[in-house]
Amino acid sequence: MPGDEAVVPVWTHALHYGTAVFEGIRCYDTASGPVVFRLDEHLERFVRSARLIGLSLDWTHEELREACLSAVAANGFAECYVRPLAFAGDDRLGLHAENPTRLAVIASEWPSYLGDRAREGLRATLSSWQRVGPNVIPHTAKASGLYLNAALPGRDAHAAGYDEALLFGADGTLADATAHNVFVVRDGILMTPPLSTGILPGITRATVAELAAESGIQVRETALIRADVYLADEIFVTSTATEVVPIREVDGRPIVVGPVWEQVSEKYARAVHGQIPEHRDWLTPLPAVTTAEVPPT
Questions:
Q1: Which residues are bridge partners to 189 per DSSP?
Q2: Residues assigned a catalytic role
Q3: For residue range 224-240, what is the model confidence (pLDDT) as tens digits?
């Protein structure tokens, strides 16, 4: 259906309490036609996210898969952004109400989240907001309610003239950016905070780490402190919406947009466009005609 016809009642449980999970998935055009990048991995995380916050999903993996492919095919997109969203519906309010789960899949032409800034690099600041701890709410769930912890530091950063904010945990170690995972380069080693800092296990993060290791770059999950950020040779952030984007400044301190980012981002671009044969298993071709019905909403 057209987007302006897709409506939900204002008493929808998820609107009041954040009881929803979602995924961000990209479809890319290739020499062989449109493909969806790492669709199965995204849907597996989608199911895990729902399980973590107690949302029941009455759709199989194959039905979710077909819903995503159908949304892209129905729009005739060659490249687009796909967002499956499962949310507690409109039966009753109350924190402990057991409402039916609703499902929507949105496909839209959404270019790189950060536009032209993606290649020139971002200006970042260290946020005064902390990343919530892993035992406060389930950080491994891509849950709507969790994203207030990203929106507040992001708004503060933008109001101060920055593009992005970097968040630290209660223990003083680097966690991530507002809605991105973070990589720091020092002496040729590519480092990223561990999941124990309260970060989302990013699929783009995992992809970048694998591609970097294949290129002979040493990759290390390790705790990073403020000094590691200020003394970094390079810093870049990753997500499906953003892809792989360098940071060129942190709190007024210049950071080089350097060779590790260039190598990794170029290889990532080749992978998503089907130009690395050994990683074509990451790509789900878009059927010319999708005959399966979209699962009920």
A1: 186
A2: 142
A3: 999 999 999 999 999 99
180 φ/ψ angles, rounded to the nearest 5 degrees: -140, 150
Residue 186 has a CB neighbour count (10 Å cut-off) of 15
State how far Cα 138 lies from the chain centre: 16
Q: How many residues can be counted in the chain?
A: 297
| Contact between 261 and 267 (Cβ < 8 Å) | no
138-177 tens-digit pLDDT = 889 999 999 999 999 999 999 999 999 999 999 999 999 9
Residue 244 has pLDDT above 70, yes or no: yes
SS (H, E, C) 169-229: CCCCCEEEECCCEEEEEECCEEEECCHHHCCCCCHHHHHHHHHHHHCCCCEEECCCCHHHH
In 3-state terms the chain splits into helix, strand, coil percentages (rounded to 5) of: 35, 30, 40
Instruction: Give the chain's largest Cα–Cα span.
Output: 56
Q: Residues 51-62: what's their mean pLDDT?
A: 95
Rounded Cα gap, residues 12 and 226, in angstroms: 41
Residues sharing a CB contact under 8 Å with residue 64, sequence separation 6 or more, in sequence order: 43, 46, 47, 57, 84, 295
pLDDT at 290: 40
